[in-house]
Amino acid sequence: MRALLAALALTLLAGCASEARLPSGEHQLGIHPARTASADGLQAMTDRHSGVRLWVAPQPVLTEADVQQAEMAFTPAGEPAVVLTLNEKGRATLADVTRQHLGQPLAFVVDGELRLAPIVEEPVLDGRVALTGFDSLQEAEELVGDWHQ
């Protein structure tokens, strides 16, 4: 679990801010199973800066409704991060999804944009994930404000 959290905290995908932003309080989060190869029923998504292309399940398994708490943090490189603690239902779902998708990416989509896609190395049992790769501290703080319960 620590390996995945560390990978999430250290993985910085360039250019994470979406040009089309939703009004404050309405940022959408979707955590989706994904694959590195095309498959029926999956949607192709590409990170606009890194060029990483994934095929993502159209329906998220977790959303902002599963967020119990959002906190600001910083990566070892000093970049802003948002640490999400999921509610009880979200923790159970995340544990199941990460058990079922070992060795595969888990796509974090914010406001319709692929933001982070770590490879699941082990099940995440504590319900905590970190989002990284923000264009600014303000962007990260805004998400924390929106998702802080």
Which key features would you list for this structure?
149 residues; alpha+beta; Gyrase A, domain 2; 6-stranded antiparallel β-sheet; 3-stranded antiparallel β-sheet; 3 helices
Report on the structure:
With 149 residues, this protein is α+β, with helices and mostly antiparallel strands. It has a single domain, classed as Gyrase A, domain 2 (2-Layer Sandwich), CATH 3.30.1360. The protein is globular, with a radius of gyration of 14 Å.
Q: What overall geometry do the principal axes of the alpha carbons give? A: globular
**Major sheet size, sense and barrel closure:** 6 strands, antiparallel
Output the number of helix runs: 3
The percent of residues in helical segments reads 10-25%
What structural class results from the helix and strand content? alpha+beta
Q: Give the termini distance in whole angstroms.
A: 24 Å
Q: CATH fold name, please?
A: Gyrase A, domain 2
The low-confidence parts are 1-24
Instruction: Please write the CATH class name.
Output: Alpha Beta
Number of domains: 1
What would you report as the Rg, rounded to the nearest angstrom?
14 Å
